[in-house]
Fold this sequence. Notes:
The complex is a heterodimer of chains A (172) and B (449). Chain A is α/β, with parallel strands linked by helices.
Amino acid sequence: xxxxxxxxxxxxxxxxxxxxxxxxxxxxxxxxxxxxxxxxxxxxxxxxxxxxxxxxxxxxxxxxxxxxxxxxxxxxxxxxxxxxxxxxxxxxxxxxxxxxxxxxxxxxxxxxxxxxxxxxxxxxxxxxxxxxxxxxxxxxxxxxxxxxxxxxxxxxxxxxxxxxxxxxxxxx
Amino acid sequence: xxxxxxxxxxxxxxxxxxxxxxxxxxxxxxxxxxxxxxxxxxxxxxxxxxxxxxxxxxxxxxxxxxxxxxxxxxxxxxxxxxxxxxxxxxxxxxxxxxxxxxxxxxxxxxxxxxxxxxxxxxxxxxxxxxxxxxxxxxxxxxxxxxxxxxxxxxxxxxxxxxxxxxxxxxxxxxxxxxxxxxxxxxxxxxxxxxxxxxxxxxxxxxxxxxxxxxxxxxxxxxxxxxxxxxxxxxxxxxxxxxxxxxxxxxxxxxxxxxxxxxxxxxxxxxxxxxxxxxxxxxxxxxxxxxxxxxxxxxxxxxxxxxxxxxxxxxxxxxxxxxxxxxxxxxxxxxxxxxxxxxxxxxxxxxxxxxxxxxxxxxxxxxxxxxxxxxxxxxxxxxxxxxxxxxxxxxxxxxxxxxxxxxxxxxxxxxxxxxxxxxxxxxxxxxxxxxxxxxxxxxxxxxxxx
Lengths: 172, 449
């Protein structure tokens, strides 16, 4: 399966390249693409956050001809209504997903910069959202990357790859 | 995960309905939506729902009115009310009228996920999901612990014995033998399997971050603490805490560990609230703890607290028959992950793999196979793909006689078993007297390495 990695308002080129390398080892082909998205309309002033579903909707309009999964990587903080934040969002059984690294930075919680931890967390969330694109729901196995993680502590605890059951549904 | 749990989201805002629909759908629930109280009741008449998420303020029938009607029809239904503005009197009314809980928009995803999970667990306490049970039975086998050798079969027996108890386990073994896998196997075979196993790498913990890492911190507890953070012990609530490399912890950390293991309660850094956590302790070490105790480097009370049930994972060189199984397991894993068409290991390469002593144990073997899969260009792994050189496993002496081979082999087995004569004799399939005779004949000494 071809994976398109789309940085949108994303400044960490080393992290982007690391995620691309990791995905290239897992999936048949990974390409970085520029969607040239203007996400200003997805910004909500009161919350100082971006509405992720709206960003995905914009991406859909620009990627109709691409055959593969398109994952957006962004620095901006994401939300969906009702929830205070989300790490990412995906279309279940669809083509598009988005991951924000805003709350994956250790600095966000403890003031300490940890680039290695950031890479691990980002890859976990990218694989997690891609898993939803492949139709996977949350897995009960804590060792599986598809385990639900609603806090950073849970992102750290869960595994960094798909369990055997979930792996069966992924097209590499 | 929650295939049989049906949730009805009732909110007049389309955007809220859609967002929550997708969020709960990913959680594995069966989700439906209604844009008003009236529509919700119509759907409720047609089908049963386990849980309702209801917006308080809607045109027409309000959330509170809907709550009453739902409860009239099915008192066991779980209703969680959502509102944009928290008000104590409304909250009291809602709870009096039978609401399970009351949340204010926007709600922390962790809070909502746990609230719904708790409510669902309460409702389905006796109805165990068949699908979930099947899945757990599958992962409860220590399938990632590879090995059919006598030594590994013994380990599996010990795991099965100790797992269902809540006993503290101390896992010993050289670096890279798979102590963490054994800990995971114990955890997933225990009643705590629905909760996480949280690893604390004691050797890697910086002293300055110790308390925050283990016990968490409150927002503003120190410079940079922008958010409240749960610590490892709090995350392990209901599950298992795995203290890896416990032999390398500092004296200060030993005191902290002993205290929290004994009391199972602590406070987050910067907080006053006493937090209780129900966890099982599994520790692992590659260091001789008894010697550390004697040298005054490891607290005796902590040692006794940890060394309740001890289990020793054998080094790979003592279970060579497992090497081909492990090698193929890693090959399949890495070839799949890297999408490479390598299906096998050549006979020559396997010979070297089996003969090699693997001082870094399973971890070294795993790394070697990973490297071989990275560099491999054929359908099978060749000797040249392996990271170690032929000379490291070849007999480099000039003497090719049978007696020279016998001398070397006996010495090797003795060294591998710390010169335990009974064990070495058993492996060599000769009696102890014969072994003593051969040791004398070849002039073997413990320092003959």
